[in-house]
Automatic annotation (TrEMBL):
Keywords assigned by UniProt, alphabetized: Membrane, Signal, Transmembrane, Transmembrane helix
Ranges of biased composition (kind: Low complexity): 322-363
PROSITE patterns named among the record's database cross-references: TAT
Name used for this protein in its record: Gram-positive cocci surface proteins LPxTG domain-containing protein
Transmembrane segments: 375-394
UniProt-annotated stretches for the region Disordered: 317-369
Organism: Actinacidiphila cocklensis
Domain of life: Bacteria
InterPro entries: TAT_signal
Secretion signal span: 1-36
Length: 400
């Protein structure tokens, strides 16, 4: 990258969120007014002299001319505001060190430049030398100021972004309409997106965890050069509800963001490549008896600066079944019923339930659909007393 001339100073260091927010807010507020009455906007912005419309990662730069014309009969304020976005199909937000930018005055006063992060892109502000981002150029009546803007894709430009869009408007001053230019990033990549999904709904009750799998698939056309964050969130808070993920053969508590509502999963490592899949085995647990059964929406959000993928499923929150009362021994029985007999009585209440009740009950659970969830939860709690809970829950999952 060529050095920036003495008349231009690049301001680097901390990215002031307030600066970017105010700049973007200003652009957002100005745009509707401009479109509503474009004839009244005194400033016209144009882009010309585009050298070519392809950028190669880590190699060379492209330039174009930005011209701002004051069509009114009075001096007008202008602060340059260029928004740099990844192409429409690019799923990865941009970082300041991934895009090279220069703004050099051609027919304008000495200029300073500030590059701010504004997910998913960058906000390039240019303003009078020695001032701050909100200090304006004063363009005389009927005059035009122009700058040469140069951009390049650094070697670290996201591997799955294959385009760059630049919109030039004004942080201050009234512009009829932004000017824009598009660059393709070589090599070209197939169109696609990062997607994720749950493999099914989850049923949870105290003492009865519910499991599901969350799967991410990279169909975006390249690899992610930064780690991905994935968060799981409920539609409302449930006291005592927890989330765990499977790692190394063990269940590990997920990092809590908001108790009983949201959790952060381990990052998907950098280098997540095209057509790769990353899976989380998840388990929800309920430590408290809910006031009443209810269904809750469960959402996942993959975040890389901004949300780039999401998935939804349903969590069925159930109440734990109350233990059954001990069976009353029959008048002819020589001994009280065993705990196993009391926990799982036969349908006819006879003493034969001790030997004949366990296997048929397990078989019935293995073939029962979700419409009998309440009954299954009760039976599972009873079987847990006999040490058969794990077997039943596994068979239930296989039959789902």
């Amino acid at each position: 990258m060529s050095s920036i001339p003495n008349s231009v100073t690049r301001i680097s260091g901390s990215r002031l969120a307030g600066v970017a927010a105010v700049a973007v807010l200003g652009g957002t507020l100005l745009a509707p007014a401009a479109h509503a009455d474009s004839t009244a906007a005194p400033l016209k912005v144009a882009v010309s002299d585009v050298t070519h419309n392809t950028l190669t990662r880590g190699q060379g730069t492209n330039s174009f001319t930005v011209t701002v014309t004051n069509t009114s009969d009075a001096a007008q304020p202008f602060t340059g505001d260029a928004m740099v976005w990844p192409g429409a199909s690019g799923p990865s937000p941009l970082a300041a060190d991934q895009v090279r930018t220069e703004v050099v005055p051609l027919h304008a006063p000495a200029t300073d430049v500030s590059v701010q992060g504004q997910n998913p892109g960058l906000n390039v502000l240019f303003f009078p030398h020695g001032g701050t981002w909100n200090k304006s150029f004063q363009i005389p009546a009927g005059a035009a100021y122009s700058w040469k803007m140069t951009v390049g894709a650094a070697a670290g430009f996201p591997g799955n972004d294959d385009g760059l869009d630049i919109d030039v408007s004004a942080g201050t001053g009234r512009v009829a309409a932004p000017a824009d230019v598009h660059f393709d990033i070589a090599p070209a990549l197939p169109d696609g997106r990062l997607t994720e999904k749950f493999d099914g709904a989850v049923t949870v009750a105290p003492g009865h965890p519910g499991e599901t799998t969350l799967e991410l698939h990279n169909g975006a056309g390249g690899k992610f050069t930064s780690p991905l964050n994935d968060m799981v969130e409920l539609g409302s808070t449930v006291p005592g509800l927890g989330l765990e993920y499977r790692s190394g053969g063990n269940w590990v508590p997920a990092k809590t963001v908001v108790d009983g509502r949201s959790w952060l999963l381990p990052q998907v490592p950098a280098g997540f490549a095209y057509q790769q899949t990353h899976s989380y085995r998840l388990r929800f647990t309920a430590a408290q008896q809910p006031a009443a059964p209810r269904d809750l929406n469960v959402s996942s959000r993959v975040v890389l600066g901004e949300q780039i993928a999401s998935a939804q499923t349903t969590l069925h929150l159930k109440k734990a079944a109350k233990p059954s009362a001990p069976a009353t021994p029959s008048a002819t029985a020589s001994a009280p019923a065993s705990p196993t007999s009391a926990a799982v009585p036969a349908a006819d209440g006879s003493a034969g339930a001790t030997t004949g009740g366990s296997s048929p009950s397990t078989t019935e659970l293995a073939h029962t659909g979700s419409s009998h969830t309440g009954l299954l939860a009760g039976l599972a709690a009873l079987l847990a007393a006999a040490g058969a809970f794990l077997t039943v829950s596994v068979k239930r999952r296989r039959s789902a």
